[in-house]
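ESCALATION

Customer reports they have been waiting on this structure for their group meeting. Please prioritize. Original submission:
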Amino acid sequence: MGDGGDGEGSTRFINQLRSLRGSRPQAAAEERCELCGRPIPSQHSHVVHVEQRNLLCACRPCYLLFTVQGAAGGKYKAIPERYLDLGDRVLSPAQWDRLQVPVDLAFFFFNSPLGRTVAFYPSPAGATESLLSLETWEEIVRANPRVAGLIPDVEALLIWRRAAGCASYVVPIDACYELVGIVRRHWRGFHGGEEAWQAIAAFFAGLAARSEPASSAAASGG
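Update from on-call: job pushed to the front of the queue and completed.
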């Protein structure tokens, strides 16, 4: 009777240990450079595959390799790290209406394979293209030299249209897709829901904190 009790107790103890071992969180998969395979930190740079529009995580040496114009025949480009606050006067309400973007968030960049500027907006389905009025876009570019200076494929004009005016930023293209991911994760129903708009507001607050004002950049020649 005593031996049987000890055996049952040992069995229960072993089962508990197995249960605890099984419940431990799995270690996060190590992030690696998608170009050379070496481990990289969670905060890292990105490279864009120009034709496929893929963003690739990159270690610093690989990233720097593709900062050289024409590297790899222009197939890959390093995404720059410039954040510029253009304020709320980049475009008028009438110009926004003529752009025919169906929501209050959009980003614009020059797509080299297509040979033209394209417009996208975040949606629950991902980044959705909107037909761009080239005449209105050219009007905006003429009035805003900073917009004219966007680096093709890797920099974008990101705009959030609000009642207080348009928040406008020059950002790396991966920041735009970060916003797309936020919308996909948090959007609920037709109008998005409070959680989604809080997440969007927090994203733009982060942009404001890290962006240099356009006037300061102009004074420094940046």
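Sent to customer with the following note: Confidence is low (pLDDT under 50) at residues 16-28.
Escalation resolved.
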